[in-house]
Structures are given as C-alpha cells and as structure tokens.
Amino acid sequence: MGHHHPIPRDVLGCIVTGYAKRGTTLLKDLVVQTTGMVGRFEGGLLLAEAPRDGIPEPHATHLVAAWRPAAAFLDRYRESDSFEDGYRLLRESAEALPRHDAPLVDKTPEYLVRLDDVLRRAPLTPVVVVIRDPVHVAVSWMQLGNSLDDTVAWLRVATESFVAAIESADQAPQLFLVNFADLLRDVDATMARLHEWLGLPHVPDACRDEVRPALRAGWPGPTAPGYRG
Predict the structure, then answer these.
(1) β-pair type (12-18, 127-131)
(2) Which of 29, 39, 127, 134 is disulfide-compatible with 105, CB 3.0–4.6 A?
(3) What are the residues whose beta carbons fall under 8 Å from the beta carbon of 21, sequence distance 6 or more?
(4) What are residue 36's phi and psi, to 5 degrees?
C-alpha cells in the first residue's frame, strides 16, 4: 500500500458517504447549497489505490454521466500523479459544475465499505457519514430488486468497515456522523454542527426548503418514491 499525501481542502472540501439509499444525496445537496463547494453524483476516485488504476465501474460510468467531463477525462485521469491532480483535472473539465474554482464534495456511498482505504488515500480530508435505521436501509435496497442475502451481506461489510474506522484513534477525527432522522427533524441544528466541524460559517434557516421534498416522500421511513437517497 502506497503513501498518499493530504489533498488540499481547496481542492477536495469533503467526502460524503453512508449506506446506499440512506440520504447521502440530500446531504450532499445541502453541503453544496450552504458551503460553496461543488459536486455531482458519485465520484469513486478513491476506490482504487492510485489514479493509474482508473475509476472502478460502475462509478466511472456514473461520473461521466453526471459530471460530464471532457471526452478524454478517464484516460487523462490515469496519467495523474496523485489524487490531488486527479480531482483538479475533474474540477477543471466537468461541464456540469457551476464553478471550476471551488472545493469539490465527493459523494460516494461505496466508500463506506472501503473506509480504511479511503481515509488512507485522502488523509485529513473531512468525511461525513450519513447513518440511518438499518431496517429502513434494507427495505430501500430490497425495493430496488436486491435480494435479502445480498442486502444483508452489503450491510455487514459496510458496518464492519464503519465500526473499525470510528474505533480507530487515527481515523475517527476525520469522521463526522449525521443521523438522517435528526437531519430531517432539525436540519438547521444538524447543519450548524456540521459547518462548525468543517470550520465554515453557518447561515441559519438557509436549507429548510431542501428537506421538504424528502419529508413529503416519507423519509426517514423505508420508502421515498421519486427521491434518490
């Protein structure tokens, strides 16, 4: 395993992860709205040991579709010397971003099952982990056609990875936990704590409207028609 240097906060502002279908998209949207960071759908850059290894599928396909980088981005990314260079390249070439000089937020639920590797590849980068009732997570997954066995297996691996990280004296300071039910119950208080942890200013009541579609869709319960978690 190689040694990785910290990625500057003005390049990668934070990472958002959590069990898939558990509210990571909503939290990413709130971070983008309230911090000046920019980001789209899943990044997945940190799932490989180095940029030369590329971005694993289906994350590469998702990234190209959502971020809309230049046509040769995936090839050029493999030539990057570091993750910092790779994120800079993504920021510069992604047509879907409103700005190309703002810190990125990388929202990738799959990071949760590889949390030790992600924290090692992006040392000092703040990582926000969204937690939600595992029963609700399982129901959401199974509504998408996943089997019970596959759902339980994924939950087990993700939970073991998460617990190992929060029990690590070295890794725990990089982590901030957001309970999804608390986020919907009092979004302003939750985001205020997150902003303080990130060292960023907080504007009261700046994001209450963002959670209303989720509440109307039935969150934080198991179903959320029309809303991507």
Answers:
(1) parallel
(2) 39
(3) 109, 137, 140, 141, 144, 229
(4) 85, -5
For residue 142, give the amino acid letter: M
Residue environment code for 28-54, b if the CB has 16+ CB neighbours within 10 A, otherwise e = bbbbbebbebbbbbbbbbbbbeebeeb
Q: Name the token pair of 86.
A: 């790779």
127 token code pair: 């990582």
For 156, the token pair is: 């087990």
Residue given tokens 């700046």 in the structure block: 206
pLDDT digits (tens, 9 = 90+) for 200-209: 999 887 776 6
Residue 65 pairs in a beta bridge with none
Q: Kindly report, residue by residue over 17-76, the tens digit of the pLDDT.
A: 997 666 898 899 999 989 999 999 899 999 999 999 999 999 999 999 999 999 999 999
Distances from the Cα of 229 to the Cα of 35, 73, 116, angstroms: 20, 27, 23
Structural domain spans, the chain: 7-36+107-229, 38-102
CA dist., res. 211 & res. 86, Å (int): 32
pTM for the predicted model, two decimal places: 0.87
Q: Architecture of domain 7-36+107-229 in CATH?
A: 3-Layer(aba) Sandwich (3.40)
DSSP state of 210: H
Q: Which of 204, 223, 202, 205 is nearest to 214 (CA)?
A: 223
Distance of CA 31 to the CA centre of its chain: 10
Residues 105 and 16 sit within 8 Å (Cβ to Cβ): yes
Nearest by Cα to 7 from 120, 99, 161, 130:
120
